[in-house]
Amino acid sequence: MVSIIGILAALLLPVLSKAKAYAHSTTCKNHLHQMGLALQMYVDEYQSKYPYYRGLPDHAYDDAVGADNTAFWWAKLLPYYPIKWTDPAYHCPGYKGVIKGSIMDKGGWTHPNGSYAYNAKGACGTWSSVITNNVLLGLGGRTYKTPRPGRTTGVTSEGQIAVPGEMFAIGESRWKAQGDQGPEGGRDYMQCGWIYGPGYANKGMGAFDPVRHGKNYNQLFCDGHVSAMSPWGIFDPRNTAAMWNYDHQPHPEFWPPF
After folding, report:
1. What is the mean pLDDT of residues 202-207?
2. The pTM is what?
């Protein structure tokens, strides 16, 4: 009898695991759908422009997310999606990394960590490539209280997006215990390139943790629909570079080196 129970349990475990992953994915997709509605309401209210990844602070939300965090894209969605970034209910239930906002220290502000990320810079390997070349390929870069030549990337308007149904807006964040994302959790901006794989110069950098709800990551597109995709496809510019950029062009000149 014991052996029979053991066999049945072994047969049921994969089924239960798959059901749990499916439930996590459904919840995650619902989160992204709600965030997509909030993002569209923001765009409608702000002259058809997307939010900066990190813009100017809005101290009306100091009590909600802390003074150091009101400048980030997710704080700008609070009037339309009133869930705090630091609330676990904001995030994918399959995400196991740290959830925290930005912290100011002697070295400046740190990146927030969580399960979702904004397509701020498009298919660019680093922030510096955007800043140095003054190119914005994604939805929104950074801004400052006083102008800093070469350091402001601006924001994209809705009318600039060539194919809204094929451009990433918000997706699941990359995270690995080792690598350029740090040991804590996923950063709140999407990062293309620097994945493990043949041909990459820095194979120890920037991998992702695919264990959230099966083998796929959920992605919100600029037209509001949500799709599940393989992270090996999403983050490899050889496969999806055009889907990162508002002009729907791959721009290999901004990819990380192979």
Report:
1. 51
2. 0.86
